[in-house]
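Worked example 2:
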Amino acid sequence: MDSSRNRGKTREGRLSAADILEEAPVYIWAYPTFPGPQAESKQANQSVFRQGLLNQLQREYQPWEQLRAPSLQGWVCYVTFICNIFDYLRVNNMPMMALVNPVYDCLFRMAQPDSLHKEEEVDCLVLQLHRIGEQLEKMNGQRMDELFGLLRDGFLLQDGLSSLSQLLLLQLIEFRAAGWKTTPHGSSPPTLYHHR
């Protein structure tokens, strides 16, 4: 070992912090930049994870009407979960195409007249569209137009909607009309908090 490498060593033979910082760029540039077996293994593990997750979502998705009937809270949790997966799980920095139609199907179900009378479902629908509406529209604009047609009809034609549901739907319609951006005097949608 040359003398310049020995100058900063402590009595125990370790490098001092100053020497490590001084030599760190040498170590950083010495690593290769191409993917090795660990990167391939990580990609394979991610693929296995994604496939397992999609299989589980598909198993849960099949009887979604059965999930909604006995437990509205379970249904709202499922929709929130699938929308979160759509939002966060990416392939080549794009949302997973396999989730576009299932997410739309869930949101369409929440836009039906009987669902618009349940504030929990309206709240979930509005929050999810605030988060992922723009991404969903880029993936399938025609379905988004159809969904907002249902929401407008529900807002204008449904009798018995609560004031909060009407407010949430109006804010959502305005949010999309503004290009998925909050208006200068607008705010994020109010959130329902239920105390049991």
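Residues 1-5, 15-41, 191-196 have pLDDT under 50 and may be disordered. Residues 41 and 47 are 10 Å apart (CA to CA).
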